[in-house]
Design a protein that fits this description.
Structural class: alpha/beta
Helix content: 25-40%
Number of strands: 19
CATH class of the largest domain: Alpha Beta
Radius of gyration: 21 Å
Number of helices: 14
CATH superfamily of the largest domain: Vaccinia Virus protein VP39
Largest sheet: 7 strands, mixed
Number of domains: 3
Distance between the termini: 48 Å
Length: 412
């Protein structure tokens, strides 16, 4: 029916993981002058490959269109992201001994939010970032950056320039890659013998267990498990030698990889233990994915029930955050300004714009202090602790915070 092929193993795919209807591109915030104009909507239908069990969205829009000069995500705006990045740098330097003689290269380096911590420790850094607007911010901060997508061609070009990485890293980027083989194929070219790669990505097992379906949007081409990522790296001559379960994005993995046969990096027991957990959870059988969709529909009804009851009781509801995941959540649930008056975000770039599809206006966080709503729906739930801490004044007038997933929770 769909005539789709897996983006990794090229096997035919037809097994549905989740069908969320149609949605605009997640970060395509609407300018006020375009309020009366039409937005493009695309099918948001994720499938799972029956051979390698990669969960994936078909290519609906080019990466060049999505990650353009208008790309609106700047990592440095989140205190939680910065704290996580600094802790990572300190851990990597302590564990692997990176110093002034080392070369660190980050893929999807954004505005230099992470590399600056390596640079402060005297380590040579280079960022590779496809969006010119955020790469420009990195350059202004003193982080050397190349504006291009990463893959085999980029790796060869940098190698010819004399670059060879002791560490390559990519946080929350692998899911954004339409051609996984080209992307992963670049690492063994640019990483020197004895060097390592670390990649962080939302853990598919946690997405399924905790119903974080709003992580499905058009920037995310793939949804990743350890068992599938192992296969992808192995196909390109690299071995996963360690894995950590980490907190960001509701539960992520940080994988450590090296050239196959590198005896300096023996495979830890954590890899086998997590692989066994994923197998036990059904991630290597089609049946393991088939209950997700109905459980998601239950959470949709749960959120709509809360919002309707709040409005019928005369309560005011606003949002906090304008992340990409909010586009999926609100468009799938059909939530517009009849349910949520507005949302706020710390990124000045988004102020004055409208959320894609739903056209909910985006204001600075101070707007909440002015209007004193009854409920603040945390759309950026992955940093809910940061938000509730920074906006503690909401409780002064009896306002309450609400988390939408995995079930609606009104926080005390």
């Amino acid at each position: 029916m769909y005539n789709l092929k897996c983006r990794f193993c090229d096997a035919p795919i037809s097994e549905t993981f989740i069908d969320l209807g149609t949605s605009p591109i997640a970060n395509s915030y609407v300018k006020p002058e375009n309020f009366m104009k039409m937005e493009p909507f695309f099918a948001l239908h994720a499938f799972v490959c029956g051979e390698c069990f990669l969960v994936q969205l078909p290519n609906m829009e080019s990466r060049e269109h999505i990650f353009n000069e208008e790309y609106a995500y700047f990592s440095s705006y989140s205190a939680s992201v910065l704290a996580h990045s600094k802790a990572y740098v300190e851990m990597m330097i302590e564990r692997f001994g990176f110093d002034a003689g080392s070369q660190v290269i980050e893929v999807a380096s954004n505005d230099g939010y992470l590399l600056k911590y390596f640079q402060e420790r005297g380590v040579k850094v280079l960022g590779i970032e496809p969006s010119g607007s955020v790469a420009e911010a990195a350059e202004k901060a003193g982080i050397p950056s190349r504006v291009r997508f990463f893959g085999v061609e980029t790796a060869k070009a940098l190698r010819e320039e004399g670059f060879a990485a002791d560490l390559m890293l990519g946080n929350n980027v692998m899911a954004h890659v339409p051609d996984l083989n080209d992307f992963i194929g670049g690492f063994p070219i640019l990483v020197r013998p004895g060097g390592i790669v670390t990649i962080e990505f939302p853990h598919l097992l946690r997405t399924i267990e905790d119903l974080y379906y709003d992580q499905v949007y058009h920037e995310h081409y793939s949804y990743l498990s350890l068992v599938t990522v192992e296969k992808i790296f192995a196909a390109h001559g690299m071995t996963l030698f360690d894995v950590e379960e980490i907190a960001p994005q509701g539960g992520s993995l940080r994988i450590f990889a090296c050239h196959a046969g590198d005896a300096a990096h023996p495979v830890t027991e954590r890899v086998a233990a997590l692989r066994a957990r994923e197998i036990a959870a059904g991630l290597t059988t089609p049946e393991g994915y088939r209950t997700f969709a109905e459980r998601v529909r239950e959470t949709k009804r749960d959120l709509l029930r809360f919002l309707m009851e709040a409005k019928e009781a005369g309560k005011t509801v606003v949002g906090y955050g304008a992340p990409a995941k909010a586009t999926t959540l609100l468009n799938y649930c059909g939530v517009k300004t009849d349910m949520i008056d507005y949302t706020v975000d710390i990124s000045p770039y988004k102020h004055g714009r409208l959320l894609p599809g739903t056209r909910i206006p985006i204001h600075p966080p101070e707007r909440i202090l002015e209007t004193k709503p009854d409920y603040v729906l945390i759309l950026a739930w992955n940093i809910k602790d940061e938000i509730t801490r920074n906006m503690a004044a909401v409780r002064d007038w009896g306002g309450r915070f609400v988390v939408p997933l995995p079930r609606v929770e009104v926080l005390d």
